[in-house]
Design brief:
The chain is of the alpha/beta class. It contains 15 helices and 23 strands. The strands form six sheets. Strands 1, 2, 3, 4, 5, 6 and 18 form a seven-stranded mixed β-sheet that branches. The protein has a five-stranded antiparallel β-sheet with strand order 19-20-23-22-21. Helix 1 runs parallel beside helix 10 and helix 3 packs across helix 4. The termini are far apart.
Length: about 450
């Protein structure tokens, strides 16, 4: 494709996270002159502050619990304990191994220019950064999102932490009140409960409310078995400082109650980062982010967007996919339409939660007459040998028994879900999976059984 010669770059990408990184590298591989603007950490949120460090902490917690339960397997381990400072150091090592500390070099090796300044549009083809102005033929906005902080009286004055501060705590708080019930809230509830923190998790609805009710009910029960206090249907009314503690007041079941805690974690979702002077580029937004079409074009046809800044999912893997689609469509006459139907949704607690496609509630709201099949993890040979009996596989189909959704709560559910994601992507019927040989003993046998139970 012929590009005008009077611009500094063929493509400017704003943001170096999952979407921006993939977009920049793809365009550079096409021979385009590319610049990435990043005002924060190279690599964005996932490797530095979110997915990677939280999974490192979760893994340390899982090892600790395995050691404590070793006697169940006939293994004797004396005086099981942990050193949280060493857990913290390992988390930092895991982050370092992602290569984010050398992120700039990786971009430059691919021929991508990194400009570590905040960029804002001054016209539809120009951004200002530092004391300079840069122009490009095409743009991809991948500025991500920031934590949504609810307006709760006293919260700002009393102070709180988000996931970004939580991963850098040098010791677990003695008590923690978590506001929110999504994946981030659930993962940190598990992390700190394993390391001895007294946890209260309060959500306006139920835990993991976007998934099937069976998922929420089981996760809630398992959390309560861990000693975590789960408060569904709660409105936090105010927060105040009380000596060295924080007093959280809330309404639960029609009653006003309160609890004193050492720390408060806000995990109430995220909001797109839009401070880019988008009006100067004729890029329109809505409450959910930048408005894009099915090709990820914004209302300015030469400007595309990807990742958390557009949604609908705020996952690293969806951002990577969107970054590729946006970069491809920016420079190709043959356009790719986005398709999110088979996007996996995972929560890395124990056991893991993984879902894909429609939940039963969403399918019914769409007017789809469904069939479903369930299989309990407890009936599996692998559950028997591993002493892990909690969980299930649920498969949802339409009336023709074509798979349209699935939910798994099981060990390694994040790996298991991809069989069902592929089936959904290919519009396979449940009998295709139920008729396929699955290895014994594996947790994936539950997929075969659930598909054979469709009714």
């Amino acid at each position: 494709m012929f590009l005008r010669k009077n611009h500094d770059y063929d493509l400017i990408v704003i943001g170096s996270g999952a979407g921006g990184s993939v977009a920049a590298h793809y365009a550079a591989a096409l021979g385009k002159k590319v610049a990435v603007f990043e005002k924060g950490a190279i690599g964005g949120e996932c490797p530095n502050f979110a997915c990677v460090p939280t999974k490192a902490l979760l893994q340390s917690g899982e090892v600790l619990e395995t050691a404590k339960n070793a006697k169940t397997f006939g293994i004797s381990i004396q005086n099981v304990s942990y050193d949280f400072e060493e857990v913290f150091k390992r988390k930092n090592l895991v982050v370092a191994r992602t290569g984010t500390s050398h992120g700039k070099e990786a971009f430059e090796k691919s021929g991508v220019h990194i400009i570590q300044h905040e960029a804002k549009f001054v016209s539809s083809h120009e951004v200002a950064a530092g004391d300079k102005t840069y122009s490009a033929h095409k743009f991809i906005i991948a500025t991500g999102s920031k934590v949504f902080i609810p307006e709760i009286p006293g919260l700002t004055e009393t102070k709180y932490i988000t996931f970004r501060e939580a991963i850098d705590l040098r010791k677990p708080p003695k008590s923690l009140f978590i506001i929110g019930g999504g994946p981030v809230a659930c993962e940190f509830a598990q992390i700190f409960s394993i390391f001895g923190t007294s946890i209260t998790i309060a959500t306006r609805s139920i835990l993991l409310s976007s998934e099937d009710r069976e998922v929420s009910d089981l996760v809630t029960a398992l959390f309560e078995n861990r000693g975590i206090t789960v408060l569904p249907g709660v409105t936090v009314t105010d927060v105040e400082k009380k000596k060295d503690k924080k007093l959280v007041s809330y309404k639960f079941g029609g009653k006003s109650e309160s609890v004193e805690v050492e720390e408060i974690l806000v995990a109430t979702g995220k909001t797109p980062s839009l401070d880019l002077n988008l009006d100067m580029a004729n890029v329109r937004t809505s409450h959910s982010g930048i408005i894009v079409n099915k090709y990820l074009q914004t209302t300015a046809s030469h400007i595309f967007a990807a990742g958390d800044v557009i949604g609908p999912y705020l996952f690293t893997h969806s951002g990577e996919y969107q970054g590729y689609v946006a970069s491809h469509n920016a420079f190709s006459y043959s356009k790719i339409r986005v398709n999110y139907n088979a996007t996996p949704r995972c929560v890395f607690i124990t056991p893991e939660v993984a879902c894909v496609g429609l939940s039963e509630t969403r399918a019914e709201k769409k007017g789809i007459r469904i069939k479903k099949g369930l299989a309990a993890i407890s009936i599996l040979g692998r559950a028997n040998t591993s002493e892990e009996f909690d969980g299930f596989v649920k498969v949802i189909t339409n009336e023709q028994e074509v798979i349209i959704g699935a939910a798994i709560v099981a060990p390694r559910a994040g790996e298991m879900i991809h069989e069902l994601a592929l089936a959904l992507h290919l519009r396979l019927k449940a009998n295709v999976l139920s008729g396929m040989i699955h290895a014994y003993p594996t947790y994936s046998e539950a997929i075969k059984i659930a598909c054979s139970n469709i009714e």
